[in-house]
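Sample pair:
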Amino acid sequence: MNVLLVEDNVLLGDAVRDHIAADGHSVDWCLNLAQATEAAGTGKYGVILLDLRLPDGNGLTLLKTLRTQENSVPVIILTAHDQTSDQIEGLRSGADDFLVKPFGLSELSRRMKAANKH
């Protein structure tokens, strides 16, 4: 599966990328919203792992754009926002799942598999 990782934290991004690659998936990693928007537009991803707080905007902007374009790629939000209201907003915007940082990499793998089956 091709995975788009959108994460501006280099330490976390490295760990997630390496873990996903070790699971046998290919990973494209974007550090900001502009790169992620361009990459997501290619339509080549089986799942998108999306941080909300990015240096050039909010990841929900990308999520809402994808859903407006009727792009149904599974999106899992990865964020430090742990408020219930943030989770509700993400899910209402079209996210398939929501993981609060810090999270276990094995949990991420399970959720990616589940999201990709839908």
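The chain has one domain: 2-117.
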